[in-house]
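Review form for a predicted model. The reviewer records the input and the model, then writes brief findings.
Reviewer: anonymous (R2)
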Amino acid sequence: MTNNQPATTPANKSTTPPAAAPTPASTPAPALTQRSGRVAAYLAIMLMALGLLTAVTSYSPLAESISTEIGLTDVTYGLLGTVGPFAFAFVSLITPFVARRITLEWTIVIAALMIGAGQILRAVAGESLSFFAWSIVAMLGVGAGNMLLPPIVKRFFPDRIVSVSTVYLTVMVFSTVYPPLLAVPIAQWIGWRGSIGVWGVLELIAVIPWLFVILGLRKSRGAVGGPAQVAPAVNHRTITKRVWSHPTSWTMLVMYAMATINFYTVMAWMPAILNQTAGIEPATAGALLALYSAVGIPVGFFIAPLVAKVRNLGLLYVVVAVLVIVGYLGLWFMPGTATWLWMMLAGICPTIFNITLVATNYRTSNEMGGVTLTGMVTFGGYLVGGFAPLVVGAFAADGLDWSVTYIMLIASMLAVIGMHLGLRRRVLVDQ
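Model under review:
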């Protein structure tokens, strides 16, 4: 994690003209040049990442207990898995506009409050409808937090994008692994309500250092006369138009969408597929899903440095896609042999999320361009990918062989390979 590079490194190597004068949002705040301010920002980012995805992964191991007590039906449970990516898509579309009006810092505070409050309040829900509603609130916060963290890193640590991104991405992947592993033991100790509600406390704690950061920024700006001293070089509408019209932005959106198709299909259907094709029991299938998620932890240490150094970003996507295709072919034709190996190879696919999110920092000139690009990529990615579990469900309802699902997943990785040429050059999409 010593491969720290200035945020301007990719731009210096690019053939695009240098950015104009920074906007107020992209001007580093004096408070964060002090050690205390940077420590608070770092702690806030890591706490946010540590609890970010717990709302998604903490309740499924306890579905039976929850259903027994509050009447969570199969339909409601199925909807929770389906509406998640659509909630992420919706919030990704509106978050950039909110951030421009109330700042990145206040927007991520709201996201943390939504995640924390949503998880705690669904834990005390008396019936399935309120459980469903508060789960959606938490998921909206997850979607906003996920897209805000990359520009937040660019804003507060422009000289340490690689190292900070590496750590927070690893912590974020870890947040998908430990809740399902600890859900049942905690439920046996304090009940299912405590087991799913306790994770919300993490996000509420994350608000505290964010408030210190905001207070420090306010004092700093007051001391130097406020951000009004800096004239914006370009308005936000122009930035949005540039980002949404750039071919590189659309290529990144497609990459994110293909990863979403794969991730949600595997999470929703792989246990059933393995049971029917290889006779693997649900408990073992659950462990294999945990392995699928855990692959991202060691791989995450290499993503940010590679994205920062490699000139042809498309090559990273090609390597990931080829390995994932090998994993799917193994699961398709040899599901009962070395299943763990095929699941590990398939588990490299979510790395596409991390590559894309980190790359938004190196394909934009400032954090407001970054939040616009991240919002576009995650909006389109989740909107397209969210239909995948429904499509596979239709395949299953029609009695189609699981080979059709594998063909769909492999085809999505072939699309990644085919689109990689759109990322062979370093460009700034907001210029």
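Findings: The chain is about 75% helix and 0% strand.
Further findings: The chain has two domains: 27-230, 232-431.
Recommendation: see findings above.
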